[in-house]
UniProtKB/TrEMBL annotation:
This is Lipoprotein-releasing system permease protein. Residues 273-398 form the ABC3 transporter permease C-terminal domain. Its main location: membrane. Residues 27-237 form the MacB-like periplasmic core domain. It comes from Hymenobacter mucosus. Belongs to the ABC-4 integral membrane protein family. LolC/E subfamily. GO terms for cellular component: plasma membrane protein complex.
């Protein structure tokens, strides 16, 4: 241990708990702790919102959607050949999985209510559907090998409007020539919180849609593609588009639901501005604390200079003092921030209104990299704040400082 660090420890351990410097020191520690805690919680919640909402969107459209090019804006699409498209997707190393789909508009009629919906047929040959995580009641669809399943999933909103529950039957009327009627059983109820999906879609077996449309097993309405890395969406989309047939179109999920992704981007900008203000306040408090320490220890600085201590040695003494405050503040900040996140993650004490926030509780996402970055940013800015006022020491004259009261 060098002399500067030794003196710094003595000052730290011998500080009068009732002195003004002691009070300011506690404020500096609390400022760093609360600043770091708020940043950790803010990013955990922001990433939680982003992941939850993106997960709900991806469960209905994945990252990319390939379908027949058509000027008609109807939710029903023209069929495309499945085998050729599958070969093209398998050749792309960035494609993680893909799932065929088909849609058919219908009217659900129960004993007391009537409601228009879209039956979306899915298939789980190439992996489980992302819709499984949205299930809130009942069971997911079964896909028997022998025939098409008569089970469907309805959203919580549709179930409430039609007074349906798992196990109930409902008549589906399909407007086509000739009109068709199917009796389906509600096997489960899902909920995403996104009206774009919950008010429109009923999930069923794609073989039912094929049968209603008169398609052979080789035709599908389109293909939903999930990528290995969502951040490479634009690059992979361009590459896939260049290799598609002229009569196919490719839609990116960020363009289909642009309003939701724009909202997430706006949230991100607001949080960044908020965090910059927090860092500024914590830095300002640290600068003020070190200034006060220097002023209160002016006599000591004068004595140390008179006996031969250099400016760098005295500056290091206050640097180690600031380092000690920073480390203590960061320790308390991590305990508070991570503790709050853990409580919310496991026990969900803070609820949300699904009508406004698309989920029923405040989400938490654990990201070790972001936590380390926030700690590093807090550490570096605090040390920079410590160094700024220590340069005042070079201007202190020993004779004047010893007389200073």
């Amino acid at each position: 241990m060098n002399v500067s660090q030794y003196i710094s420890n003595k000052i730290d351990g011998g500080a009068d708990s009732g002195s003004f410097t002691s009070s300011v020191t506690k404020i500096a520690i609390i400022s760093i702790a609360m600043g770091l805690a708020v940043m950790v919680v803010s990013f955990a919640i922001l990433e939680g919102f982003r992941n939850e909402i993106q997960s709900k969107i991806f469960s209905f459209g994945s990252h990319l959607q390939i379908s027949k090019y058509d000027t008609n804006n109807s939710l029903e699409v023209e069929p495309i050949g499945e085998p050729q498209l599958i070969q093209e997707l398998k050749r792309n190393p960035q494609v993680k999985s893909f799932q065929p789909f088909a849609r058919k508009t219908a009217i659900i009629k129960t004993k007391d209510e009537v409601l228009g919906v879209v039956l979306k047929g899915i298939d789980e040959k190439n992996g489980q559907s992302l819709m499984r995580k949205n299930l809130v009641e009942g069971k997911f669809l079964s896909f028997p090998d022998s025939s098409a399943s008569n089970d469907v999933l309805v959203s919580r909103k549709v179930a409430d409007k039609l007074r349906l529950k798992p196990g109930d039957n409902a008549q589906f009327y399909f407007i086509q020539n000739p009109p068709r009627v199917r009796r389906f059983t509600v096997r489960g109820i899902y909920q995403t919180g996104l009206d774009e999906f919950d008010e429109v879609y009923v999930i069923g077996d794609i073989r039912q849609v094929r049968d209603l449309a008169g398609w052979p097993d080789s035709l599908v309405g389109g293909m939903e593609v999930t990528l290995k890395d969502f951040r490479r969406l634009d690059i992979v989309a361009d590459n896939l588009y260049e290799n598609l047939r002229y009569d196919l179109k490719l839609d990116k999920i960020t363009e289909q639901y642009a309003q939701l992704f724009d909202w997430l981007q706006l949230l991100n900008r607001n949080v960044v501005i908020f965090l910059l203000l927090i860092i500024f306040v914590a830095t300002f408090n640290m600068v003020a604390t070190i200034f006060i320490m220097i002023l209160e220890r002016t006599n000591m600085i004068g004595v140390l200079k008179a006996i031969g201590a250099t400016d760098n040695q005295i500056r290091s003494m206050f640097f180690f003092r600031g380092l000690s405050l920073t480390m203590r503040g960061m320790l308390y900040g991590n305990i508070v921030g991570l503790g709050f996140c853990a409580i919310q993650y496991f026990f969900h004490p803070i609820p949300l209104d699904p009508e406004n926030y698309y989920m029923d509780r405040v989400p938490i996402h654990w990201d070790l990299f972001i936590i380390l970055v926030l700690n590093a940013a807090t550490f570096l800015t605090s040390l920079l704040a410590v160094l700024i006022p220590t340069y005042l020491i070079a201007r202190i004259k020993p004779v004047t400082a010893i007389k200073f009261d």
